[in-house]
Amino acid sequence: MRILSRYAIRAHIGPFIFAFSAVTGLLFLNAIAQRLGDLVGKGLETTVILEFMLYSLPHIVALTFPMAVLVAVLYVFSDMTGNNEVMALAAGGVHPGRLLAPLLLVGAVLTGTMLYFNDRVLPESNHQLSRLLSDVGSQSPTFDLREEVINEVHTVDDSRRFLRARSIDAATNRMLDVEIYDLTRAGETRTIIAQRGEMAFTPDGRDLYMTLEDGFVLETAENRPAAFQRLYFERQVIPFRGVGAELERRTGGGSRSDREMTIAMLRERVSESFHNIHGVADDMKAISMRALEAALGTTAVAAADGFEEGQRVNGFITDPVLSEVTQEARVNQTRWDVQRLTVYRYRVEIYKKHAIAFACLVFIFLGVPLAIRYPQGGVGMVIALSLTIFFLYWVGLIVGERMADRGHIHPWIAMWSPNIVLMIPALILTLRMGHDMSTNRGSRWDEIRFRVAELVRKLTSRGRRSSANDPLVAGDVR
């Protein structure tokens, strides 16, 4: 039996690696193609683009890992059944479920691995990717000038230039009374003074061109201490290379969304939200007691809240006071709803991490009996069933997540319903796996096609008989 277990496991390694690599590569290229244009247009360094690609990969892996398990199981058992290996084992007294046992053990290991990945690796990569996209999206050239201040200009050619302007118009990029001090060359000082200036960046945002008008240039050198050179100009263009090429990265942890948190962080947020809900409940209780005491005519409560006697009618609080209490109750009800939906949103993420990991076991339970019943479909059947099952699974997961986020259903039901819906037929097919098997001479797939063709034939012949019995049609024929 150990030989059989090793054979079943070893047979899945190649198809799993191929399916995982192929599907991950396709989705990864699609994700990169959607964002790469924006990144390249920012003039970013290659390391930043590679960092983006690295942080985008875990999100793709979380989708493709369970799918690769399903594809590998369908392909291997379909091939084994088509080669009559399963039938031969059954004839030798080995129940087909015996082949399922080692895969369930491997599936349990994959489920644990996937849970660790969803809990530790995926949230951190999502957080780093979110920060990177935020930095790139809000990137403006690092060349940020301030009025009446000597600003150092950093360029890629390591030139030392300092700029000062009396006024800078951020809308038009025009400047007045501009002074530029160029200390790039050792032992030489070059000062440019102009009455007006205007800045313009290249389309990629990397280079800055500064156009100066009505000014002059002063040049001095240490080897000529008693001499200087003055050059007048009406218009001069000065390039600053690479002032916008540097990406400013934020430091520190920063805030995290629900998809950027580990299970421990999510549970901590759930506890905080529950604490806030209890606080809202206490406030609502206090408001209710205050309104009740005021409505019963308690003088102490009215005096403490500043209610005058003119606000009472026969000892009861009048409309303005009741309106104030009602408004406070509505505010607390809104706070209650917000905190409840917050709890739902964090719990959805917790259950989703577990449910996606458990999907590896569900797909093994479902894939083995399906492949044994339909062995003649080939690769087309494997692809069709995989896409159909995974499409239904993710549609159920997405719809359940949205409904739970809106508070319509419980988060546990929303996230685990796809697994439960698929697990029920999987268990039924698994229990019947020893009774319903196919060989390479015929399969359930052939039976389905035969029955569909038979149904079409019957409907067609029935339609012909109806036309022949129709008096109008018969009269026309005669």
Summarize this, please?
The chain is an alpha+beta fold. The protein has helices at 2-41, 46-82, 85-91, 97-137, 263-295, 299-304, 319-373, 378-405, 411-431, 444-469, 471-477, and strands at residues 151-153, 161-169, 174-182, 188-201, 208-221, 224-240, 312-313, 316-317.
How would you portray this structure in words?
The protein has 11 helices and 8 strands. The radius of gyration is 37 Å and the shape is extended. Strands 1-2-3-4-5-6 form a 6-stranded antiparallel sheet, with no helix packed on it. The chain has a two-stranded antiparallel ribbon with strand order 7-8. With 478 residues, the protein is an alpha+beta fold.
Please describe the biggest sheet, giving its number of strands, its sense, and whether it closes into a barrel: 6 strands, antiparallel
Major sheet: arrangement of strands: 1-2-3-4-5-6
Strand segment count: 8
**Ends: how far apart?**
75 Å
Q: What is the N-to-C succession of helices and strands?
A: HHHHEEEEEEHHEEHHHHH
